[in-house]
Amino acid sequence: MRLTTTFAETRAAMRTATDRIAGLVPTLGYWHEGHVALAEAARRESDVVVASIFVNPLQFNQQADLEAYPRDVDRDAGIADAAGVDVLFVPDASEMFSEPPMTRVSIDALSGGPEGERRPGHFSGVATVVTKLLAGVQPDRAYFGRKDAQQLALVSRLVRDLSLPVEIQPVATVREFDGLALSSRNARLTSGGRAAAVSLSSGLMRAADAVDAGERSAAVLVEIAMEAMERAPGVRPEYAVVAGADDVQEIETVDRVSFLAVAATVGDVRLIDNLYLDFDEGRVAPDRGVWLQEPSAVYR
Amino acid sequence: MRLTTTFAETRAAMRTATDRIAGLVPTLGYWHEGHVALAEAARRESDVVVASIFVNPLQFNQQADLEAYPRDVDRDAGIADAAGVDVLFVPDASEMFSEPPMTRVSIDALSGGPEGERRPGHFSGVATVVTKLLAGVQPDRAYFGRKDAQQLALVSRLVRDLSLPVEIQPVATVREFDGLALSSRNARLTSGGRAAAVSLSSGLMRAADAVDAGERSAAVLVEIAMEAMERAPGVRPEYAVVAGADDVQEIETVDRVSFLAVAATVGDVRLIDNLYLDFDEGRVAPDRGVWLQEPSAVYR
Question: Are residue B64 and residue B212 in the same domain, yes or no?
């Protein structure tokens, strides 16, 4: 009999490690270049790439928002195939919830803040379904965008807390040629809204410039981001905040890996964006994301 | 590219199915014949048997109870080895909780009732750590005793809700030669308490006789069980209740798989026991458990 003390050791003792490395890209569907970037990152690092499409009802706190969420699996399948996805997992509602789910996974400590307060139940809904996907598919790695910074913190934490044997791989935000972060919701912007929506990212980039020039005060960065949104016509800013990347707690000085997050409503479309502030040995490096050279598929 | 619609299909597409069948027996340690029965069931049905020992702080609502819980890994290792366990997983606190856990798994709908109300937080603590063990070890089957009926309902449900690819295997309660259900807590009974403690199981067995004679009224079965406990000196009955085995909701008539659960305090030791009432095509079969022929190791 062998005595083990870690999960990894235990699994190694149980199974022969001949499996291929599997990467999972969990999505809500309606793919754009942001999803493609996730799939391409998985492709580079995995023997087999699985992507999932499921519009998770648990993470929508408003029924209308859930129903309005765009769906087009055939279109997604074409994009995913071209991006190198090997297996596209599209569970129907009966596979995901053959009976009304009673189990909830929650991380109250990471579900608050300005974003969590505006979306009651959202992060618990995300945590529950992400746990289900990771537990059920058992990938070796899973890919999440930095665009959803609080979600990334939450998923990274639940994987550690629940000993899920998967590495969470963050992927940089993909932006339109003018900086607007890609989002399925962008398709719902009017042309005037589209023009104004760039104020979220332009404020963040101005804040990045300030960081590069040595600024470390969260209040100053917040003011730069808020001002850009406030000046744009038809944009109703909700918040700008600097928070630690791991604990999502508001900070006053950029002295760790953190992010400057913003949210605003443009017309009737709620948008979020953020600027990661990577931190290494006292140096701060803003992650401006990956900028497309021409308008994304949404506008073609 | 292949399109899949179920977790099982997705895993099959990802991995070659050459793994051995692994059975997990999660325990708090201080093994007795009840644990041995779990290990033996796993041994019969698995290529490799893993047992875990971890005194889970999250499921103890009283710190004193946690500290009083008996621990003896060397003794357990000998018993587990003899029972055919291949891998004994004994994580230390830093492997289980290298940082204070923020994530909670909860099933409020299955965590109430007379047992849940007396142990606030207990079932969420169980759900969290069982999820962690199943997610981290990735067994094909996991073995749980019928003695903890509400825990069994909870674990069965969370595995379905979270799509954990594991079969939960219930194992019949092991009883002393006189009927007392085995429990690590029995070692703490005084000799007078030991004699009185049999009243929990003797009431259940009298209720089983009534069921065999055609009784289907929950109220009558509850009365039989309560009366036996009330008549025993030094026994303070807490409750007797008949509940559905899946939803743990109190029922009035035995018309489904259910259990008659009892709890009482004997001296300063809190004991629980139950009688499963298996149900098939209108017939009810009480599960009286497995009776030892001689006193268990606790008394040797």
Answer: no
